[in-house]
Amino acid sequence: MKKEKVVSLEDRVPKLKQKRKQKENRQLITFVFIFFILILIIIYLQTPLSKVSNIQVNGAINVSGQTIKKLSGITNETSFWKINEDEVIEQIKKHEQIKEVQIEKKLPSTVIIKVEEYERVAYVLTDSVFYPILENGGFLEKETSLKVPDAPILTDWDDPELIQKMAQQLKKLPSSIVNAISEIHHTPVQTDNEQITVYMNDGYEVIATISTFAKKMKSYPLIVSQLDPSIKGIIHIDVGSYFEAYNKEEKEQLEEEKVDHEENEN
Predict the structure, then answer these.
(1) Is 161 in the same domain as 260?
(2) Minimal CA–CA distance to 182: which of 149, 136, 222?
(3) Are residues 137 and 241 in the same domain?
(4) Which segments of 81-159 does DSSP mark as H helices, in order?
């Protein structure tokens, strides 16, 4: 039989001590490393490096970036790590023109605020002043600096409820049709208080009613495609659907009224 190698206790003790010492050293190094990291974190949090250094606002069109920043409550003194995103979003959405808000943090210290505004679907013209109407039916303060409206102009409207209904109808329409509308006049008759007269950029006039305007107006491109472009007139979509060509006198009168209206605006 082969003799088994026997290791004496004296030989094993130094090795056990060495292993124990190595383990203790590793634990000490780990502890020192963690302690060092904690110290760095504490120092970082106490220095300007942990503060917000840059605030970007994306998506704002009619609301200034400065207004968005002010509503957010975030400043260069705000801790980058202590921003309550839900609270910031809630504060910004208090603005009547803001629809949606997103907050994004970008290391090391940039905060990006992405906003979506309510669309302006129309402008009410009163005493040569434009009042924007939002897609949710909300009214804004007058726009004294507005030169070229980016949405249809509502003329001869004095009922806020009907204006809101009209805004909702416009929101349902494709932008291509909305952009083709110049003015919408409230022209009620005894049988229909919601009757409107719509002036199109292509020279046609549309008689419609507010409640069914979006549904019927979606067919406008198809209706126009079947008409002679050299003959302008009135497209009736209030009751049924038919075309009524202008006679020469009506056309001249409408052109004179349009010129007078533009002169009064200027």
Answers:
(1) yes
(2) 149
(3) yes
(4) 85-92
Q: Alpha-carbon dihedral of residues 161, 165, 167, 169, nearest 10 degrees?
A: -170
Cis peptide before 108 (omega within 30 of 0): yes
- Domain of 92, CATH number, reads 3.10.20.310
**Per-residue confidence of the chain (266 residues) as pLDDT tens digits?**
455 555 555 555 566 666 666 666 777 777 777 876 777 666 655 666 778 989 999 999 989 999 999 999 999 989 888 899 999 999 999 999 999 999 999 988 899 999 999 999 999 988 888 889 998 888 888 776 666 678 999 999 989 999 999 999 999 999 999 999 999 999 999 999 999 999 999 999 999 999 999 999 999 999 999 999 889 999 999 888 899 998 756 555 655 655 555 555 55
H or E element at residue 133: strand 129-134
pTM to 2 decimals? Answer: 0.69
**H-assigned helices in the chain:** 9-45, 65-72, 85-92, 160-171, 175-178, 213-217, 220-225, 248-265
The residue segments making up the domain with residue 71 are 48-117
Question: Are both 248 and 129 inside the same structural domain?
Answer: yes
Is residue 196 one of the residues assigned to a domain? Answer: yes
Q: 82-91, long-range: CB within 8 Å, 24+ apart, which pairs? A: 83/52, 83/111, 88/113
Task: Mark whether 124 and 221 lie in a shared domain.
Answer: yes
With 0-12 / 13-18 / 19 or more C-beta atoms within 10 angstroms meaning exposed / middle / buried, residue 115 is buried
Give the domain-ending residue among 58, 86, 117. 117
The domain that contains 235 carries what CATH number?
3.40.50.10960
141 with 211, same domain: the answer is yes
